[in-house]
Amino acid sequence: MQLMYNGKIMAPYLVKGKFAICEDSSCTFYTSVVRLKSDMLDRIEIPLYALKDYPAGLKVQLNLRLWQDVFVGEEIWTKKKQDGDDMDYLYRDTLKKELIDNVYSFNITVPEIYKTQFVCDSIKLQNDSAWNPYGSDNTIWKSSLPDIYFCVSDGFWNEQMRSHTEKSSFSFDSPDTLNYYHYTNDAVFRIEVLDHDNLSRDEVLGALKGQLSALSNMRRY
To answer: What is the mean pLDDT of residues 112-123?
Structure first.
């Protein structure tokens, strides 16, 4: 699928985190494979801050192009079930002509969109008799220090952006800045500090929930 404005593909907005409005430079969303006669659905949510570069109150017409030009053959599907390998684009056959190619249009009024920047100078982890970071990150070969990063999310845990990761460290000493888009001045935000893990879910080391209005008169927190 591609999202277009006035017939032009919308510019991609890439973020450091797992969520991105666009997955590549062509602003194309790739969905998972869904077999015919199945009841599986693919759902893609596009936040309103995708329109952050357009003035508030502007009435825009967005066009969503939906097409299908790849499919999985039965022999590939059988092979996947036998050896359990993950599906990959290498296993797909490309059609010379799209099986589906439709454009859907809808109108929307751009809302007020605000941007707040969270500037992080450093993060120091707890290090006392109750808990310390040494040996807290267990790997296959040994225990080590955590791989630290932080992220900012809205009140519904929708992550917008995440920082770089400090590998095997007891502190986060390289400054980083995260953008947070919201629609009111008193919007709720969440900041989490996590330990990245390649083999399991990232572990939360600390979290903060608050309202932006409470920070408006403060320079440092």
So the answer is: 93
Strand order in the sheet with 148-154: 159-162, 148-154, 188-195, 203-211
36 and 132 share one domain: no
Calculate mean pLDDT across residues 182-206: 91
Beta strand extents in the chain (DSSP E only): 2-5, 8-9, 59-68, 70-71, 93-94, 100-109, 114-120, 123-124, 137-138, 143-144, 148-154, 159-162, 171-172, 176-182, 188-195, 203-211
Q: Which residue has the higher pLDDT, 188 or 29?
A: 188
75 and 46 together in one domain: yes
Which of 63-72, 134-143, 159-168, 189-198 shows the lowest mean pLDDT across its residues?
134-143
Of 109, 139, 160, the residue that ends a domain is: 109
- Which pLDDT score, from 0 to 100, does residue 67 have? 75
Q: Which of 65, 87, 109 is the last residue of a domain?
A: 109
The pLDDT value recorded for residue 18 is 35
For residues 46 and 78, membership in a common domain is answered with yes
Distance CA 22, CA 12 (A): 5
State the Cα angle at 69 between 89 and 11, rounded to 5°. Answer: 85
Residue 34 domain boundaries: 2-109
